[in-house]
Specification:
about 160 residues, Glutaredoxin, two-stranded antiparallel sheet, 4 helices
């Protein structure tokens, strides 16, 4: 079992097999449009533009589980990301990252890289998982870790 064994849906409802990202470095992020960390979209997009031609993919998963900070539907999320931050990396449909209805990908990510003090659950929006080219979950970064601070870790895997 690995990252590539999962499927997800894009914001516009198209099914995607994550196996299509084999050989890429992945940064998987749970996002929200109305969060104090939302400006990280700008840094994520800058990181994506810097490294996408070298094999980085950033996968954004909107989530409304933290302070109801992602209340919009798929169209509202897509418009916000595009118009406010010019996001060009793949965005997926809104999911749960914790609890009984958590997306299986997030159950896997959390089991591979636990949070501080060995906790499993995602604590807030903009938690980031770094995955190497072989699909191994290398690191987990909390919301306060800015995209800019991940540059070195990403570059090392490319």
């Amino acid at each position: 079992m690995g990252v590539y064994d999962f499927d997800a849906q894009t914001l516009d409802g198209k099914p995607v097999k994550l196996a299509g990202y084999q050989g890429k470095v992945l940064l998987i992020v749970n996002t929200a449009s109305k969060c104090g960390f939302t400006p990280q979209y700008k840094g994520l997009e800058a990181l994506y533009k810097k490294y996408k031609d070298k094999g980085l993919e950033i996968l954004g998963f909107p989530c409304n589980q933290f302070g109801a900070q992602e209340p919009g539907d798929a169209n509202e999320i897509a418009n916000f990301c595009s118009l406010t931050y010019d996001v060009s990396f793949p965005m997926f449909s809104k999911i749960d990252v914790n609890g009984d209805k958590a997306h299986p990908l997030y159950d896997y990510l959390k089991s591979e890289q636990k949070g501080m003090f060995g906790t499993k659950n995602i604590k807030w929006n903009f938690t980031k998982f770094l995955v190497d080219k072989k699909g191994k979950v290398i690191a987990r970064f909390g919301p306060q870790a800015t995209p800019e601070s991940l540059d070195g870790a990403v570059a090392k895997l490319l």
